[in-house]
Request: fold
Amino acid sequence: MEIVTAERVFLRMAREYRHSAITPENESEKLIALIKKLLKFKTTSDQDIMNLLDEVIRIIASELEINEVSILLLDKKDKKYRYVLFYGLRKEVVKHHKELAYALDEIIEYGNKSMKKISDTTFVCFAENRTEEEAKFFNLHINKKRAFDDDYIEGDFFDTYIYDSNSQFIGYIEYTGTKKNKMPPAKTILIIELMVAIIGTLLSNHYAT
Reply:
């Protein structure tokens, strides 16, 4: 059987992304309704922000059929990036993530070392590129082979970066796994990028003060 490499998976995804429309015409009304719903959220308090992000996670999990979602945000107090919300992750993984605090250069370093760029804001890390330490902690089978170039392997994950209106990096949405055990299609990534752009705009005042 032909070996399907992570590089082959990446090339297929990048090609599909470049040639993809965000949504077919018969879904345009649904997308417009989604945008309007998010734009109604206030972001004047920390609880307002959590309410907005809660809704975004709900949409990604239920509407886009993603198994695991987490959100990392910049803490204005110490300029560290921390995970603030989770969906679908095991309890021990949530506990581990809550203890993490990243400097910006650490995020950039990991991205350069382990991730591939699909678009200006979305990056993918393949299970094959995870460290032995990560594989051991998360109980990943990083040597598992892919039969097709759209197969998902536990350990694959995506980060879609959030920027405010001043182009400041303020966090990312991390997501992995689909109900069909396939990589998310380009349409799903594009919709997440749209939601992330809205989040960045809505949080701009929060990070400007």
Summary: Helices lie at 6-18, 28-39, 46-63, 91-98, 104-114, 132-138, 186-202, 204-208. The chain has a mean pLDDT of 89. The radius of gyration is 17 Å.
